[in-house]
Amino acid sequence: MNALLIQSALLCILAILNCQVAQPVSDFTKDMEERLTQTRLMTTPAQFKLSRLSRHLYMDFLATAKARSYAFVHFQDFLAGDVVLPSRYIVLRHDIDFAPRFSLEMAELESAAGVSSTFFVLVDGQFYNPLDSEIVRQIRRIHALGHEVGLHFAVSTSVHADVGQEVAFRLSVLSNIVGEAVHSFSQHDPVNAGFATVTLPPGHRACVDASDVIKNNNLLYVSDSAMMWRRYTFATAMEESRNLCLLAHPHSWLHPQDD
Length: 259
What we know:
Layout: H1 3-18, H2 30-36, E1 49-50, H3 55-67, E2 71-73, E3 89-96, H4 100-112, E4 118-122, H5 133-144, E5 148-153, H6 163-178, E6 184-187, H7 190-193, E7 208-209, H8 210-216, E8 220-223, E9 228-229, H9 234-237, E10 244-247, H10 250-254
Parallel strand pairs: 2-3, 3-4, 3-10, 4-5, 5-6, 6-7, 8-10
Antiparallel strand pairs: 1-9
């Protein structure tokens, strides 16, 4: 059993041990959601619902979103005056936390379905080496398919005391890997690490913080983190009369154990 399978198994075991009564996703209120954002997730809240994710279910989600006339936009589209946004849209996001090969596979599936999204890449080398020649090829292929590549950063692995300097440094590294300037960034695991306020150095090119995009545009944010749904699933989120930001971790949907 490889490291990814072991990690997934441990997450499921912890969830089962810590859940008291599995309540329906609809019972997870907005107030509960807001309180949890201020709390370290050392245990799995009972309101969270474990979900089996798969390639088939992901393709169903893409087809449903298109059938309901959602457009797909990038985070960099929110740069001031850059793009006129459609009235109904999804900002589809993928954090490459592990196993970049699954991210390339997801990028290819989305491209074939006529969907474009944003892939946030870690460059600290904690879980994979972004300078490995095969991973560089995968990242560049994702970009070549028309997807946006953004920076994913963890405060815990910073080498600069100032978080703005740190993000600027990592944006430079990733831009060189991609072969084009990167214009968006997101924080890895902000609930447990604490939300960081990023102010880029004076004169730095314009970039967008994913959390600011969500907040400033009143997007309904839904994540599949740890393969658990909170208040909404992707399906129920599309029933709401709001524009969406949806986070899908490629390794959770495309790992062979779920096919």
